[in-house]
Amino acid sequence: MDHRKTYNTMELKTKNGTLLIEGPIHAGQLDDLEFHQDLVSFRPAPQQHKALVEIAELPEGRIVIAREHDVIIGYVTFLYPDPLERWSEGNMADLIELGAIEVIPRFRGQGVGKELLKVSMMDDAMEDYIIITTEYYWHWDLKGTGLSVWEYRKVMEKMMNAGGLEWYATDDPEICSHPANCLMVRVGKRVGQKSIQQFDRLRFMNRFMY
């Protein structure tokens, strides 16, 4: 599959200053920018910065960032699903996962996440993909935000909707393990029926749901 990537950019004015939202950006450019020390939701900031550079080097990997001058304060990643997840079992060239989205606390609640997703979807090549994201409540910053599980889920859902992702049913055991967990999906306009059917088989791999 031809993993075309077309760079897009936009400015976002927030109460804490103007940000540049841009991407997908090249690994070299990503490496040269400073990575904010508060981007620690998944691992320590220097390790996460290195992980993003590695994703940007992948043929299908896409990183869209929000930056204040030369400092990255938020990002979203797209890449093939983890080989250990069921979503990789179909070996689908046109299925990619929104793996992580993160914004530093100072800029949260100001629409940065929504704009990261909107800029991601400005690239016409995204119409060739089924894009999925799996939301698990144990990854959410409930303590830092003071939100309940359901309030946080509503915020996440609203943000994903801005990128065209919608709730989809599945019998995946990890997602089914808590009612707040969910699978969200965006099916590109040029995705063929065969791929959609293959994805449906991945969503429901168990014959019976208990």
Automatic annotation (TrEMBL):
SUPFAM superfamilies: Acyl-CoA N-acyltransferases (Nat) (SSF55729). CDD domains: NAT_SF (cd04301). Residues 23-192 form the N-acetyltransferase domain. PROSITE patterns: GNAT. This is Acetoin utilization protein AcuA. It comes from Siminovitchia fordii.
